Amino acid sequence: MKANRIAVFASGRGSNFQALVEAQRKGLLGAEIRLLVCDKPEAPVVELAKAADVDVFVFQPKAYASKEAYEREIVTELDRRDVDLLVLAGYMRLLSPSFVETYSGRIVNIHPSLLPAFPGKDAIGQAIEYGVKMTGVTVHFVDGGMDTGPVIAQRAVEVREGDDAAALAERIHEVEQKLYYEVVSWFAEGRVSLNGRHVTIADKVQEVEH
Ligand code: GRF
Which residues does UniProt call coiled coil (predicted)? Predict the structure, then answer.
């Protein structure tokens, strides 16, 4: 599957969004960020998008009668910009089953643990609490469940003695910010394929010099 017109969905700080913007500036993303979708008007990520000249669709869920109602508007905004890949980066809402179905195989998410360990909220706190020695980052397709979709890429991060959630989060975020743009670039190069739960990444085609 080849996809290179992306929308980022985010609700908060936006460090992953910013890393994608910077990768695009440096020519490392291979894709164009056409839209930020945000459900929190006051989120810092909105300002980051404006500063980067990225279109923003920001909405207040409470102003709509239902999830379907605001998701219809999201679909209109995505269609208007021919978006072909939805990149979730700290979007704190579950998408409806029909939305996920509409974009099946075209929604990815980043999660701060080695899934299937520690799905859901506060994955970093869960890892500290459990006492694991190794955790990490997962990029996966989004399906109808909570962090259950097919895994595209994972990177391990060691939990050090004395780590608290803040210290571990800092190292996890560093890894996230390098991994996410790389995965998006794989989509842009058409290298990602999905077969059941299994994702394969084709080798990069070498440019032949003439
Ligand atoms: C990241 O840790 C990501 O893994 C999780 O939400 C966080 C978003 O952080 N899904 P940011 O808004 O990109 O800084």
Answer: none
